[in-house]
């Protein structure tokens, strides 16, 4: 029974955020395509984990970890953000490249969030299950920060994917599809990881992280509303 409770608590944040963005979509996507996007997000967890372990071992040695702020920042951007967001983009491209229902601006965000939260759900399960004694504390902190973080990164990716697909085919927008979520993810992780090597800086970074998350989610909400309005203007 306890394992079922832990699993439910681990999956619930991703499910609630997925339902939230699904309700925002006025022209609902077929369930089969949404499930495909979620499953692709789940599937990329395996190659991402292997690649992250490989990069970490090259940078910090077998079983090693960063010992200074330069190391934690490198870990945040190179080991975590870049591989994770790159594979999320690959999954998004796979689900959208021959998708006949990708016909509205907001669809890019919907499918990107499905991919991102599929990935985040599995990651959350492993983090929480790995904390036998303090699993509830980990579950609460990740429900408030980490899972919504993946949600926001996905919105940024989906926004620029749709802008490039429907509006602006410039290399700048194409680059933003990957670079903007990588930057947001990297900053998030760098702030979150700083306490590994310096608890005092980690304490300060925590408050900066909260401020950053608030700003990031405001930006994500702006982009959600922008594409919803864009679709309304086309159907009006």
Question: What would your notes on this structure say?
Answer:
This protein is mostly helical and 236 residues long. The protein has 8 helices and no strands. 83% of the residues lie in helices and 0% in strands. Helix 4 crosses helix 7. The longest helix is centred in the last third of the chain and has 37 residues, at 199-235. The N and C termini lie far apart (51 Å). 39% of the residues are buried. The model has no long low-confidence stretch (mean pLDDT 93).
- Residue share in helices? over 70%
Number of strand segments: 0
Main sheet summary: none
β-strand amount:
under 5%
Helix/strand layout:
Elements: H1 2-24, H2 31-43, H3 45-60, H4 69-96, H5 105-129, H6 135-166, H7 171-193, H8 199-235
Helix pairs in contact: 1-5, 1-6, 2-4, 2-5, 3-4, 4-5, 4-6, 4-7, 5-6, 6-7, 6-8, 7-8
Keywords, separated by commas or semicolons:
single chain; about 240 residues; mainly alpha; 8 helices
């Amino acid at each position: 029974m306890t394992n079922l409770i832990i699993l439910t608590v681990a999956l619930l944040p991703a499910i609630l955020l997925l339902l939230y963005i699904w309700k925002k979509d006025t022209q609902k996507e077929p369930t089969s395509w949404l499930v495909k996007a979620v499953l692709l997000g789940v599937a990329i967890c395996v190659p991402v984990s292997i690649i992250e372990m490989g990069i970490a071992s090259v940078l910090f040695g077998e079983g090693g970890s960063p010992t200074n702020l330069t190391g934690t920042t490198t870990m945040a951007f190179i080991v975590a953000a870049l591989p994770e967001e790159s594979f999320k983009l690959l999954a998004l491209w796979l689900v959208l490249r021959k998708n006949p229902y990708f016909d509205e601006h907001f669809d890019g965000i919907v499918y990107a969030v499905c991919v991102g939260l599929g990935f985040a759900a599995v990651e959350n399960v492993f983090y929480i299950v790995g904390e036998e004694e303090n699993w509830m504390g980990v579950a609460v902190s990740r429900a408030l920060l980490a899972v919504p973080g993946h949600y926001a990164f996905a919105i940024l990716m989906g926004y620029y994917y749709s802008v490039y697909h429907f509006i602006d085919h410039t290399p700048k927008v194409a680059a933003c599809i990957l670079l903007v979520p990588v930057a947001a993810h990297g900053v998030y992780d760098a702030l979150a990881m700083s306490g590994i090597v310096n608890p005092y800086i980690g304490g300060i970074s925590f408050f900066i992280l909260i401020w950053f998350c608030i700003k990031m989610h405001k930006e994500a909400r702006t982009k959600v509303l922008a594409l919803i309005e864009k679709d309304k203007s086309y159907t009006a």
